[in-house]
Amino acid sequence: MEAFGESDCYVTAVRPGSDAEAKGLKAGDQVVSLNGITLTRQDLGYVEYGYRIFPQSGLHLVTKSPNGQERPLVVMAQILPGQPFVRRSDVMTWLRTNHKERDRSRYHKVGEQILFWQLPDFSLDPTDLDGPLNKIRSFSTVVLDLRGNPRGRVDALDKFIGGFFDHDVKVGDRKERKKSEARIAKSRGGKSFDGKLIVLVDSRSSSAAEIFARVVQLEKRGIVLGDRSAGAVMESKYFIHAVPLDATNVTQYGATITIADLIMGDGKSLENVGVSPDERIVPTAPDLAGGRDPVLARAAELAGTKMSAEEAGRIFPLEWPKEQMPEID
Length: 329
Prior knowledge:
Elements: E1 2-3, E2 9-10, H1 19-22, E3 30-34, E4 37-38, H2 41-53, E5 58-64, E6 70-76, H3 88-102, E7 106-110, E8 114-118, H4 130-135, E9 141-145, H5 154-162, E10 169-175, E11 180-185, E12 196-201, H6 208-218, E13 223-226, E14 235-244, E15 250-263, E16 279-280, H7 285-290, H8 294-303, H9 309-312
Parallel strand pairs: 8-9, 9-12, 12-13, 13-16
Antiparallel strand pairs: 1-2, 3-4, 3-5, 5-6, 7-8, 10-11, 10-15, 14-15
C-alpha cells in the first residue's frame, strides 16, 4: 500500500495466496479507510507503525476499485507459528539474513550505454559500494531507481554521493541541539561516474534516498522524476535498556530517538517536506492495476531509448520478502 499524489492511498501489490487475494483485493484499488481510519498521505506511516507494534488478526477495509465501485472488506492475517522464545541475537541474525535476500541491487541494461539500477536501501557497508560504483562507470546514462528506498547509513550515503561527483560536495549542515557541523561527501575523483544521471523517487523514498535526490537537484547534477518523497530525514539513534528479571536473566527493550536534523544547501530541512521532483509523475489506479510504470518509461525516454509503460513495469518485478523468521537455536 502506498500514498500517491497528496492524499489518496492505493494497493500496489497483493501477496499471492493471501486472504487479501482470496477476497478480491487487487493492485490499483484505493484504500479509503482502514479499521475506520480514513487514510491520507500524512497518516499512512503512523497507521502502519501502529499495526507493526500491535499486530491484529484482521483488518477492516473500505476500498474503491479503479471503476469507482466502493465496498467493505475484511482481510484476515495469516498466523505463522514460530519459536516460543526469541532472543535479540536471533532477531539481529534474521535481519542480516533477510536483508541479503530482500534488499539487493538489481540492474537492467539497454545496450551498453544505459543502465537502470534499482537500489532498495542504503543499509550497506561503505566498502560494499565500490563494486557497484565501479560497474556504472562504463555507461553513458544511469537511471537510479530509489523508489521505496526507506533507510540507510550516513557513511554509505556520503560515499555514494562521492561516486557521482568529481569534487567534494557539501551534503548539508548536521544540526544537533547544541552544535552544528558541515557534512562533506568526499569525491571518488577520477573513479566517479560522470555521465547523465536520472533519479526516481516516490512517497516511500525517505532518509538517505531523498537526501541524495535533493543533493542532485541542488548541485544540478541530474534530473529527479516521480512523486514527492516522504520527508523523513532526521537522524536517529537506538538506545538499549535492560531490566533484570532475576539473578541470571535480563530482558531488553529499546527506543529510537531523534538526535539531529540536516539543513540542506538551500538552508532548508527536508523533514515533513520531502523532495519535489523536477517532473512529477504519479501512476494512476489503472496503471497500478495493469502493472504499468509510467515513471520508469519517462526515465527511459530521457535516457534516449523507447520503452512503453507496460515494458517498464516488467523490468523490476516485485520480490516478496520471506514470510517468517527461521527457527534459530
